[in-house]
Amino acid sequence: xxxxxxxxxxxxxxxxxxxxxxxxxxxxxxxxxxxxxxxxxxxxxxxxxxxxxxxxxxxxxxxxxxxxxxxxxxxxxxxxxxxxxxxxxxxxxxxxxxxxxxxxxxxxxxxxxxxxxxxxxxxxxxxxxxxxxxxxxxxxxxxxxxxxxxxxxxxxxxx
Length: 159
Description:
Blueprint: H1 9-41, H2 45-55, H3 62-72, E1 75-79, E2 85-89, H4 119-136, H5 142-158
């Protein structure tokens, strides 16, 4: 990669913007393909792949893409039996409307890249962190930590 200088800065910036616009249009194409496939076959796996891959790309606003997909197809984003987040049909019939706008121009868009939170995973992680902190003596109030641990343990065991 060549060095950025005052002479090539504008050119490099223009190339980045052009590339980003091209990428968002390519994402639009695969979303439209996934919606069409869901509409024709009732199979949401392509839409699941789109969203799950976007989660790992910080510049992709997954919350917006997820909302856009759900606006155009009767899908909910839930855990399957294996514990993976997937799109599943919400209702008995396949309902899908082909988008006329781009996902990045969609009025319902919230351009904050976020991943759906698994509350139980977070609760277990917090319980583990508290246990470690207590064991290592890094807790300000041990009695309070014990109460929180018991409450979390009860929630985690019920799930």
